[in-house]
Amino acid sequence: MFEKLRCEVQKRVTPKRYTHILGVEEKAVELGKKYQADENKLRIAAILHDVAKSMQVDELEKICRENFSAELTEEDLKITEILHGFVGSIIARKEFGIDDTEILDAIKYHTIGKKGLSIVGRIIYIADGIEKNRDYPGVEYLREMTNKDLNQGIICEIDHKEEYLKSVGGKLHKNTLEMKNWLEQLKVGGTR
């Protein structure tokens, strides 16, 4: 099944994007073993997380308007980097028959996160940013932190993202901020 998914996704994305997808799959499985998450779900979500990445922005926006008008604001629709996750969750469901909510949410929210995101979703979120092909200032630190504590690694990644966005005049998506606050509360409470 995984090989079939990989072949289908490979047809839809650039070679560089496909290499990234394989890196996310590898990192997600590695983290899944460490944090006791379902390997099959992680593999499916990782393989499909960027299935819509090579689609035209106007097509992504159109599909998001038709399917997520209650969830995505006009401001959200202008943040083109997040749309492929939402569309990817639709493709996963409609074209690949994936009906597992945990997998679909992992795909849908892999760029912005979400308060209450499952362990599978959180692993896909962070694996997307720290897989072995990613190379940016601070990535090694984020890998180390994630290896020590998944939620703390995500919090550090969000802090890093927030600094970067401020430097270019942007801001964190509300979902990302809500996820960070939720993870910080979990840390205090000590629950998974």
UniProtKB/TrEMBL annotation:
Transmembrane segments: none annotated. The keyword Nucleotide-binding applies. SUPFAM superfamilies: HD-domain/PDEase-like. Its EC number is 3.6.1.41. Residues 17-133 form the HD domain. One of its GO terms (molecular function) is metal ion binding. Keywords: Hydrolase, Iron, Metal-binding, Nucleotide-binding. It holds the Pfam family HD. It catalyses: P(1),P(4)-bis(5'-adenosyl) tetraphosphate + H2O = 2 ADP + 2 H(+). CDD domains: HDc. NCBIfam families: bis(5'-nucleosyl)-tetraphosphatase (symmetrical) YqeK. This is bis(5'-nucleosyl)-tetraphosphatase (symmetrical). The gene is yqeK.
